[in-house]
Design brief:
The chain has two domains: 186 residues, Growth Hormone, Chain: A (Up-down Bundle); 178 residues, MFS general substrate transporter like domains (Growth Hormone, Chain: A), CATH 1.20.1250. Helix content is 77%, strand content 0%. It is built from 16 helices and no strands.
């Protein structure tokens, strides 16, 4: 049966709608699950540490699985089948996790490990298909950045509404149902085969790692994107300290975190309309630098309202460099390892964000504005790395 989505390029608006429809369900479910799991753990067992451990089990396996997932997608004759199977497996895993309490912890833990192993399919793996030959790649990756931001807000927001009303178990079941939406949405998006020359799977994986580490342009983009996620991971913990110091209420930290998310969401929505003034590599460097500078100014103790406003501004500045990063991943990747570049790059960013959160947690007794400044330094470090991107000679 022919792949109708891949036989012709639909109108840009329709293509963009299909892209968002394909990417939003699985990413929304994943981001919401990370919030629902610890709430359910507290409801079912009263153990906060267990909730944190289960979230880690849902995230960390993606780092291990990413090279293999990328290699499988690069070699698959019908990658859509793998994508559909991964979405179904993720939904089942979330459904099992929702039974924490009736089911023993080890069963839920195993299910979440499986979901973590499948995560690279719906994140970096899906991103590797958004820009097909003949399409507007810049617009496609701007929409992909929008997808990440929308899902990052929508998932936790859905859990925040459902958990108080129906309980965390129902919220997690809802995330499983949302993940199943990908089974309907994936066929709408073109996922043509990139099948490489006959080569062993392990050799193919090695080629992907080699491209990421020895191809200077890819190595710089990957390192830059990883460092800024380290900074992003610090911010939520810094926000808790700032909220306690200024309002006495830790829950107020959600206002700071939400301000960043809303700023990023607005920037991503406007990004497809923005004129292209700079090259993608310059856009990455300048955008990450502006994010870092806005964060540093937010750390100057100007008052809670100014902190919120400046954090929102820093989020706004992330949209353009994130879209540029995704575009560079595709343009700088050898065709045979595109999937691996996207899945490994995405997994490294997840790991860096988790590491930033862990570092900030270990330093939770420090001055929270200093922690927020540390977040800004992470963004500036990512911007500085882009100075090492290889210069291109202009075409004659």
């Amino acid at each position: 049966m022919p792949d109708l989505a891949a036989t012709r390029e639909p109108a840009p608006a329709l293509s963009g709608a299909r892209q968002l429809a394909a990417s939003l369900p699985i990413r929304t479910a994943s981001s919401g699950t990370q919030i629902a799991i610890p709430i359910l753990a507290v409801e079912a067992t009263g153990d906060v540490a267990l909730g944190a451990g289960l979230v880690a089990l849902a995230l960390l396996p993606s780092i291990i699985a990413a090279p293999l997932v990328g290699a499988l997608l690069d070699r698959a004759k019908r990658p859509r089948v793998l994508m559909l199977a991964s979405a179904a497996g993720t939904a089942v895993a979330y459904g099992i996790a929702a039974a924490l309490g009736p089911l023993p912890v080890w069963v839920v833990a195993a299910a979440l490990v499986i979901s973590g192993l499948l995560t690279p399919f719906g994140f970096g793996g899906l991103s590797s298909y958004v820009a097909q030959p003949g399409s507007d790649a810049r617009r496609a990756y701007a929409l992909d950045a929008l997808s990440y931001n929308v899902s990052g807000v929508a998932g936790p927001a859905a859990v925040a509404v459902l958990a108080p009303l129906l309980g965390a178990r129902a919220a997690l079941i809802a995330m499983a149902v949302i993940a199943l939406g990908s089974l309907i949405a994936y066929p709408l998006m073109a996922m043509p085969s990139r099948r490489a020359e006959a080569e062993g799977l392990w050799s193919s994986m090695a080629a992907g790692i080699a491209a990421l580490t020895t191809r200077r342009s890819l190595a710089v983009v990957t390192l830059s994107g990883t460092l800024v996620e380290l900074g992003r991971g610090i911010m939520p913990i810094a926000a808790i300290g700032i909220a306690l110091a200024t309002t006495g209420d830790a829950s107020t930290s959600a206002v700071i975190v939400a301000a960043f998310a809303v700023g990023a969401l607005l920037g991503a929505a406007l990004e497809p309309l923005r004129p292209q003034w700079l090259s993608p590599q310059a856009t990455m460097g300048v955008g990450f630098a502006l994010t870092g500078l806005a964060t540093l100014v937010a750390a100057l103790d100007l008052g809670f309202a100014w902190t919120v406003a400046l954090v929102a501004l820093s989020g706004l500045c992330t949209a353009a460099p994130t879209a540029a990063m995704l575009l560079l991943r595709r343009s700088e990747s050898p065709e045979a390892v595109v999937g691996q570049v996207f899945t490994v790059g995405s997994a490294l960013r997840v790991a860096a964000s988790a590491t930033g959160t862990a570092i900030a947690g270990a330093l939770a007794g420090a001055e929270p504005l200093v922690l927020l400044a540390g977040s800004g330094v992470g963004w500036l470090a990512g911007a500085a790395v882009m100075l090492a991107f290889p210069r291109r000679r202009p075409a004659k």
